[in-house]
Design brief:
The protein has 89 residues and is of the alpha+beta class. Helices cover 15% and strands 30% of the residues. It has a domain of 58 residues. It has a four-stranded antiparallel β-sheet with strand order 1-2-3-4. Strand 2 and strand 3 form a beta hairpin. It starts with 12 loop residues before the first strand and ends in a 22-residue tail after the last helix.
Length: 89
């Protein structure tokens, strides 16, 4: 994996910040192609998303994507996962 441009310079990083958090975003080249790496500066966690996963974000409404913020680390072990037809509490 490489975080450099074809001429050897590092790929630029972008930091996005609001009143809740900050994330660092950068393009990373892997053996399977380019991915977007998103790192939470607050949680010190990161994820790499390929082009298809990124495109799939455009298939959803902002409301659908925001539902993931209700239980960002999964549902509580003593509760069933929310279903699409039942709003979560």
């Amino acid at each position: 994996m490489s975080a450099h441009t074809h001429d050897g310079r590092p790929d630029p990083e972008l930091t996005v910040t609001n009143e809740f958090t900050s994330v660092k975003v950068r393009k990373v080249r892997t053996r399977n192609g380019e991915v977007l790496e998103i790192e939470s500066l607050r949680l010190e966690r990161s994820v790499r998303l390929d082009a298809l996963i990124l495109e799939s974000l455009t298939w959803r409404s902002e409301e659908d994507l925001s539902r993931g913020l209700e239980t960002p680390f999964g549902h509580a072990p003593d509760q069933p996962p929310p279903s699409p037809d039942r709003p979560s509490a």
